[in-house]
Write a structure and sequence with these properties.
The complex is a heterodimer of chains A (about 600) and B (about 170).
Chain A: E1 7-12, E2 17-22, H1 25-31, H2 34-45, E3 59-62, E4 77-82, E5 89-94, H3 98-104, E6 109-113, E7 120-125, E8 128-133, H4 142-153, E9 159-162, H5 165-168, E10 176-178, E11 182-184, H6 189-195, E12 198-204, H7 214-229, H8 236-239, H9 244-252, H10 273-279, E13 280-284, E14 294-299, E15 302-305, H11 309-314, H12 324-337, H13 341-356, H14 369-381, H15 385-390, H16 394-400, E16 409-410, E17 413-414, H17 424-432, H18 453-472, H19 484-495, H20 501-521, H21 533-537, H22 552-566, H23 576-581
Parallel strand pairs in A: 1-6, 7-12
Antiparallel strand pairs in A: 1-2, 3-4, 3-6, 4-5, 7-8, 9-12, 10-11, 13-14, 14-15, 16-17
Helix pairs in contact in A: 1-2, 2-18, 2-20, 7-19, 12-14, 17-18, 18-20, 18-22, 19-20
Chain B: E1 4-7, H1 17-27, E2 38-42, E3 47-51, H2 60-64, E4 70-72, E5 78-80, H3 90-94, E6 101-102, E7 108-109, H4 119-122, E8 129-132, H5 136-147, H6 155-171
Classes of the chains: A alpha+beta (about 600), B alpha+beta (about 170).
InterPro entries (chain B): 4Fe4S_Fe-S-bd, 4Fe4S_Fe_S_CS, 7Fe_ferredoxin, RnfB_subfamily
Cofactor (chain B): [4Fe-4S] cluster
Keywords (chain B): 4Fe-4S, Electron transport, Iron, Iron-sulfur, Metal-binding, Transport
Amino acid sequence: MNLYMGKMLVVDLTAGSVTTEPLRAEWLREYWGAWGLALRYYTDAVSPEVDPLAPENVVVIMTAPLCGTMVPLASRMCLVSKSPHTGTIFESNVGGSFGPELKYAGYDGIIIKGRACAPVFLKIDDDRVSLESAEHMTGQGIFETEKLMEAAIGAHGAKTLAIGPAAENMITYSMIGSESYRQFGRGGTGALFGSKNLKGIVCRGTGAVRVADMARFLERTDYYTKNDLLCDDNLWAKTDGTPILVEVTNEMGIHPTRNYTKGFNGRKEKLNSDAIQAAKLGNRACASCPMACGKFTRVNSAEIEGPEYETLCLGGSNCDIHDLEAVIRFNRLCDDLGLDTMTCGSTISLAMEMTESGVHNFNLRFGQVDEYLKIVYEIATLSTERGRDLAKGAKHLAAKYGAEALSMEVKGLEMPAYEPRGNFGMGIAYATSERGACHLRAFPIFATDPHDLEALVSDVVDAQNANSIKWSLGFCDFWGTINTTIEADLMSAGLGEPVSAEELDRAGERIWNLSRLFNLAAGFTAADDTLPKKIMERPLEGGRHEGRVFSRADLARAMQSYYELRDWSAKGIPSSRKLAALGLDTTIL
Amino acid sequence: MKKELFANPDLCTGCNRCTLACSANKEGVFQPSKARMRVTNFPLRGFSVPNICFQCPKANCLEACPTDAMFRGADGVVRLNRDLCSGCGACVTACPYGMVEQDAKGIPYKCDLCDGDPACAKECHSEALVHAAGDAALFQLKAAQMKTRHNSGTPLEKRHKIAEALKKNSRG
């Protein structure tokens, strides 16, 4: 088979069995790979009412067709399941090189079912696949777990996915780490592994990914690499990486500061790209990527690949922490213990505001480094009262103490580091994402008018459809100029059969609508397409959008046009006409 | 001036475009495990080492070959004449850098610098691999890399040990 390996691994942890099954060929031209294909497998395997942490839930990990080839920025791997943090359908993707390794071992993806009776890890050594005891890894951090699994396979360079104590404790914002500093970061992917008693996966693959015509494939790849990827619009990733956004968002007045009280941080120079460059030891890349956006830094004895923008802001500015060494230590603790830095940072900043405003004293205050670093361990290990409180995430922490007005989340997922009062497009993106407040579905921060609702609704719909197929083909966000014409050309060259941009466009919209159908069936309604109270009621302080709110009336207007543009009912339900046009059969749920 | 292949680990990002390009060129598929040069990654320390064949002036692989299948071309590159190869694997054992391996039939494969235009260096966007006449700094790097030699273990183990030493020098 070209591009695909044609085989899925099926792991039943309850039965302790590992089998293989042929890839469902009939789904490929509709769902393609990664997000889309994992979603299709997932909806086939579970009912939308499933309890995310029950043995009945299933986790699907899926590579993409161009993964493992020389097409750059195309090797991201997706995980799809129902999130224990949000209760929604959830897609999370990771870079690095586990995805390519899994394909070299001969598999497009892994379906994980059931629950092991004792901790295990999955060992994949080409076609020798087994479940092994992970008793000796219990309680270990991700870094040590990866080392132990690599030793178990007996080959340096084996690729790993691992969880830490936070996930063993089933904290709903624990993550799965890969190659030390990369993650299936959001939505509690780690807790899914933890609930299944699965400590990790180690993989060594020595096989090959094939294409229809290597000369043509390389010619097309080289053409788009030189003429589209490595151009001015994308080169920020090579020179600066995501820390460049610290200056960009401050300039725009959308840089969350002090738990989303302000849109501008007067001490931004402490954590901006120049600060990162000054601490940089080298550049790091995912498989097959010439950009190497990862900046490996060291301050005193603290090393990390990063911190990335979201951590610099949500673990820095938003907690009023302006000390790069402290943010590196926070980042490293999260990466090793297994917590999502975004939700963790956001929950800490909420607790800081709750303490300072007298709601409840967590002994956490803005700008206070010592307690900010201590609390990370307390959360991951559930070792103190306040640690157990913060381990619930922002929504449930705020609910427990009646502080809903301070909690910054949508559908339970804490907001990324772009202030919606300063850019209504980000607000629309957060309100309508299938997984809650997320910046990876639409990212309209560069809109000409950041408060033109009609134009922004249209931008958001287009971006959601485009990203649905982009993530399904395994592409990275940072090939910002790619479009379905380029994607179709590369897929055609690899498969050796024509693929059109139109069918990819339609697949993107199909994937978005299927996610919506899942959430509706799981009990979500239009009322959940909303924004935090603070965004709708409290005027933004500082920066160029000082005084702005994203009012309920504006949000209602935006949602009405969003549903209309999507051909969904006023209740946010996809019309039968739209579903028919996309070839979506609702009985698959 | 004769060009040589040089590796600078401090600039390597670990992306493996080099091994993908090599396998595409030599095997017609994307298969880093069959690449003639390799990358050893240490993600936790943010460090990667491109392992390359140095086309050693005094080549152990060539000297160990009992059938004269290994030979040096006019361009200085050490190559294999498959017709003369018995598949004994002496060259694999002899290479102190882990840069000669055997395929499933026992036939060894190694870097031949793509007959003067190495695919790996063309795909390196960070200048960790360069194919050039070389300057003092590059020759110093190469000399330092060639100093660490391992006479036992599999090619993977040898490459790993060499990479460990280079990591220690660079990152502590």
